Every structure is written in structure tokens, then in C-alpha cells.
TrEMBL record:
Subcellular location: Secreted
Species lineage: Eukaryota, Metazoa, Chordata, Craniata, Vertebrata
Organism of this sequence: Kryptolebias marmoratus (Mangrove killifish)
Protein name: adenosine deaminase
UniProt keyword list: Hydrolase, Metal-binding, Secreted, Signal
GO biological process: adenosine catabolic process; inosine biosynthetic process
Adenosine/AMP deaminase N-terminal domain boundaries: 29-94
Length: 503
């Protein structure tokens, strides 16, 4: 049978020009190709000042030393790596670095769990009961609360601690109930995705009664702002459930109250913390609900957006994608804003899965069809070339949360995280910390460390860091005028950071 000869594809011709007829590839051309690749990565085109170049040389040296270690932190489970990271000189620098905004953080995991134990549970009127699955529940009440099903009788923590000579063990056991972090072998404690998600969701139930008590609700958020601000984060987009918040006498407040409270506290915080640019709220609902509940939630969110146009950024769903309903199931509810002309920007979690080819795996493309403003996680994006292309062309940034993906068992070694590829081609990405309290971190620096050292490898540099920080402003929901202001403030802080760290 005759084989029809075809013209070789362009790439083959290109390779031939490079190699045909030469025994050794031309070093000049090799250099040119390497430069080309380097220029394509996140920050590859950023023009550096002399001072930035000096700082980069320092960072490069630190990174080489870090990479040469046998216990390279990004290759390890974060729970084992945390102490190593804390003593890393790169981490020290990243803490001081102005990181811009954190665009993917959840309200009830924004503060480290230690604060909940040492502050919230030490307040008067705090009751605890132990569930029959060895978890705990809390409630603040002016009188003995009514018993919960499948929970021991309520004990007043104040009384319990008074009877003890030393409450350290009790406090540590409470702490273990409020965070996934463990000193034990994390692979043994959390052997599968199902297991780690079950524990993750149970820990939210455990802290629920603490953080939805009005006084704690306020202070928790204020403490969250403090921790991000201290970590040199100047702006937050907070995914918030806006739950029913209660008082000691059992009376409750509605969602508008919760949103208004966040707004008041943000203003109060900004008045006393110079350079903090504020918070915007992305209202969330659990994806486990049915279509009619979702319709109500979207309608309510549209109204909140109308009443709090500047403070509220938009809408999203939370909960494990693999177990919840896919976005497409909610398409009617999610089309209401466009149909009724009351705009409601979306910030969907999508592609936080490794279930390739399932209904849920379709979320990435559907999020884009529904005009999402950003993609939460987008872990599966490399499996969807069309979605990836759309995300790039439309500037729909991917919110990359490396530690979250590792702890929730999508990836073991962060050098293999799909966002390493996205960073090698300057895909629009921002780095965030998702649920720092649950993962044993605070603020944003730990995730920046994993992104810079693990995802970026030796080749990412000070330009990459600069670009990631600038991306967090550029892909925020702020108006372009606000973005310019935020960018100017960030630049001022950045210059100060660079000059203070080169010698
Ligand atoms: C908890 O924190 C608040 C706000 O910072 C503070 O006023 C209060 O005294 C603290 N309470 C305890 C028990 O540590
Ligand atoms: C309380 O107990 C912990 C652990 O059991 C121990 O490390 C600590 O030293 C004790 N503190 C006091 C004041 O006895
Ligand atoms: C949660 O706290 C209870 C009560 O202190 C304790 O018995 C239980 O072991 C703790 N759970 C975990 C996972 O540590
Ligand atoms: C949807 O869920 C709500 C709350 O769980 C329930 O009251 C309602 O009956 C459900 N609607 C349908 C159509 O299943
Ligand atoms: C998304 O945007 C397109 C183009 O602007 C528009 O036609 C479509 O109705 C929008 N869909 C939704 C659900 O927002
Ligand atoms: Zn999230």
C-alpha cells in the first residue's frame, strides 16, 4: 500500500534546523532556548532593579542550599515539614515580604486553632460535650444548655478546668479536635481522601459553637485580620458562610447582621492598621443543598450584593466537590443573576478533584461557562485544555492553595503539583491558604514558601514572587481604580522590603 508523503510538521523542521548536520547541538541556540523558557514562566518578564537583583542572588543561594537537603520540605507532608519551614531563611524572608492579597480564605479557618483554645474556650459560659465518635461540640449559654443527641452531657469548661491541677492535656485534646494538624504520622492518621475529608468536616462542626457565638465571632474575625496583617498581607477576599450567630440567652442574628458585623470590624481594623486595604466577602453556601435551596441562596446573595455593593464581592459554594452536586445541576439557579439583570459575580471552587472524566470533573468548564471571575483550586485544569485556554484568555485566575491540596491528599510531593506547570508558563495564578487554621498554619507565608520553593523550583526567582504578589491585586475583585491605589501602596512596601533586605 502506498504511503502518502506529507510535509513534516513545523516543529520537526524547527528541530532539524537546530540539530540536523551537527554532531553537538549549538550551545548558542541551547542558551537561546533556555532563555526563552525562562522568560515564559511567572515573573519571567519582570524587569528587576539593581537592589532586586542583589536580593535575588541571596535568595538563589538560599534556595540551592534548601534544595540540596535530604529532607527537602516541599517533598514532605506539610505536617512533618512545618518545623523545617519555620527555621528556613527563605521562609523568614517570605514572612517579611509584602504579599498583596489573600484571595481564597474561608471565614472559620482563618485563625490558628490555638487561639480558639486559649482565648475562646477560656471565656465564661463555655460548655463542651463529647460526641460518641470522640469529637466535641461547644456552646456558650447563660444557663445549662439542652442536651444534644449522641453527645455526653454538657460540662462547663470553667468548672472542669478548676478541678484540674494542670489543664494542658485537656487543652491539647481540644486543640486536636479543632485542627487537622497532628504530630503523629499524617499518612497513618489520614489514610485516604474520604478519611481526611470526614475529619475535616467534623472539625468544622466542632468549632461551630465557638465561632458562631457573637462575642467570639467578632474577635475571631479581628484576630484573623491581625494574623494576615502581621504576615504582611494587605487585602483579603473572604469566603463566608454568614451563619446564624447567637447570643448567651439563645437569641440569634441573621445573615445581614453577620455581613454588617464583618463590615464594621473591617472598618475598625483599617482605622488602626495603616496600609491595610480591607476585605471583600464572597458569600458561600454548602454544595450539598438541593436546587430549591440553592435558588433561595442565589436570590438572597443577589439582594446582599445590591445592599453591600462594595463590601460583598460575589458568590461561591463550599464543601467537597467529589461528594456534592456538580455546578451543572444548579444551572437554573446560577443563571438567575444574568436573567434578572442583578449582577452577582461568581468565584467558584472548581477542579479540586482527581476524579477525571466524572460529572464533578466537568465543573471547571461549567464554572467558565457561568462566567466565574476566578477558579478556586483548579487542580484538574491540566486535564482540560479548553478550560485552561479559556482561563488564560479571559484572565480568570486560578487560586492555588498548595498546602490544602497536599493535606487533602490530591498530591504528595509539591514539586508534582499541577500548578508547577501553570507557573512555568505564566498562567494567571494567585497563591492562597484556604483554611490555615485547619492545616496548622496562619496567614499566607507557608503557602508562598511551598509555591516558591516547591512549585517554582530553582528556576523561580524574585521576579516570580513579585508577579505573584501583583497578580493578587490584579486578579482581585477590586475596581481598577482601587487596584491602582492598592498596587501603589504595595509597590511602596515592596521597595522598602527589598532595600531593607539587601546589604
Ligand atoms: C481574647 O481576646 C480578646 C480580644 O483580643 C481579649 O479582649 C480577651 O481578653 C481574650 N480573652 C481571653 C480569655 O484570653
Ligand atoms: C502540665 O502538664 C504538661 C503535660 O502533661 C507538662 O508539660 C507541664 O509542664 C505541666 N505544667 C505544670 C505547670 O505543671
Ligand atoms: C477531642 O477531645 C476529646 C475531649 O477532650 C478527647 O477525648 C478526644 O480524644 C479529642 N479528639 C481528638 C481527635 O484528639
Ligand atoms: C430541599 O431541601 C430542603 C431543606 O433540606 C427541604 O426542606 C426541601 O423539601 C427540599 N426540596 C426538594 C424539592 O427536595
Ligand atoms: C456569561 O457571559 C456571556 C457572554 O457575556 C453571556 O452571554 C452569558 O449569558 C453569561 N452567562 C452567565 C450564566 O452569566
Ligand atoms: Zn476553599
Amino acid at each position: 500500500m502506498a504511503v502518502q508523503l506529507q510535509r513534516p510538521p513545523a516543529a520537526v523542521v524547527f528541530l532539524c534546523v537546530l540539530t540536523c548536520g551537527l554532531s553537538i547541538p549549538d550551545p548558542g541556540q541551547r542558551e537561546a532556548l533556555m532563555q526563552l523558557e525562562a522568560s515564559m514562566q511567572t515573573g519571567g518578564q519582570v524587569v528587576l532593579t539593581d537592589a532586586e537583583r542583589q536580593l535575588d542572588a541571596l535568595l538563589f543561594k538560599m534556595k540551592q542550599e534548601e534544595t540540596a537537603r535530604t529532607d527537602f520540605p516541599p517533598a514532605m507532608h506539610f505536617f512533618r515539614a512545618r518545623d523545617l519551614i519555620r527555621t528556613s531563611p527563605i521562609f523568614g524572608l517570605l514572612q517579611k515580604m509584602p504579599k498583596g492579597g489573600a484571595l481564597h480564605v474561608h471565614d472559620f479557618s482563618m485563625v490558628d486553632a490555638e487561639w480558639l483554645v486559649k482565648n475562646a474556650t477560656y471565656r465564661p459560659h463555655c460548655y463542651m460535650c463529647c460526641t460518641d465518635s470522640r469529637s466535641v461540640r461547644f456552646i456558650f449559654s447563660s444557663q445549662q444548655p439542652k442536651p444534644l443527641p449522641r453527645c455526653s452531657s454538657w460540662v462547663l469548661l470553667e468548672n472542669l478546668r478548676d478541678k484540674m491541677i494542670n489543664a494542658t492535656d485537656l487543652d491539647n485534646s481540644i486543640l486536636r479536635n479543632l485542627t487537622l494538624f497532628t504530630d503523629q504520622d499524617p499518612e497513618a492518621v489520614y489514610p485516604s481522601q474520604d478519611e481526611v475529608w470526614d475529619r475535616f468536616e467534623d472539625k468544622f462542626l466542632a468549632l461551630w459553637g465557638l465561632v458562631t457565638y457573637a462575642l467570639v465571632f467578632r474577635d475571631y474575625y479581628y484576630q484573623g485580620l491581625t494574623q494576615f496583617y502581621t504576615d504582611n498581607v494587605m487585602y483579603l477576599e473572604l469566603r463566608a458562610l454568614l451563619p446564624e450567630v447567637y447570643e448567651l440567652d439563645g437569641s440569634t442574628h441573621n445573615r445581614v447582621w453577620a455581613l454588617k458585623t464583618y463590615q464594621d470590624i473591617t472598618r475598625q481594623f483599617m482605622a488602626t492598621h495603616s496600609g491595610f486595604f480591607g476585605t471583600r466577602i464572597i458569600v458561600t453556601i454548602h454544595r450539598g443543598v438541593n436546587a430549591s435551596v440553592m435558588t433561595e441562596a442565589v436570590e438572597e446573595a443577589m439582594k446582599l450584593k445590591k445592599d453591600f455593593p462594595d463590601f460583598m464581592a460575589g458568590f461561591d459554594m463550599v464543601g467537597r466537590e467529589d461528594r456534592g452536586r456538580p455546578l451543572w445541576y444548579f444551572r437554573d439557579a446560577l443563571s438567575l443573576p444574568v436573567e434578572s439583570g442583578l449582577p452577582l459575580p461568581f468565584f467558584f471552587h472548581a477542579g479540586e478533584t482527581d476524579l477525571e472524566g466524572t460529572e464533578v470533573d466537568q465543573n471547571l468548564l461549567d464554572a467558565l461557562l457561568l462566567n466565574t471571575s476566578r477558579i478556586g483550586h483548579g487542580f484538574a485544569l491540566l486535564h482540560h485544555p479548553v478550560a485552561k485556554d479559556l482561563s488564560r484568555k479571559r484572565g480568570v485566575a486560578v487560586e492555588v492553595c498548595p498546602i490544602s491540596n497536599q493535606v487533602l491528599k490530591l498530591v504528595k510531593d509539591l514539586r508534582n503539583h499541577p500548578a508547577a506547570v501553570l507557573m512555568s508558563e505564566n498562567h494567571p495564578v494567585v497563591i492562597s491558604s484556604d483554611d490555615p487554621g485547619m492545616f496548622g498554619t496562619s496567614g499566607l507565608s507557608y503557602d508562598f514558601y511551598e509555591a516558591f520553593v516547591g512549585l517554582g523550583g530553582i528556576k523561580s526567582h524574585i521576579g516570580s514572587l513579585k508577579q505573584l504578589a501583583m497578580n493578587s491585586i490584579r486578579y482581585s475583585s477590586l475596581t481598577s481604580e482601587q487596584q491602582n491605589k492598592a498596587m501603589a501602596e504595595w509597590q511602596r512596601r515592596w521597595n522598602k522590603f527589598v532595600s531593607e533586605n539587601v546589604f
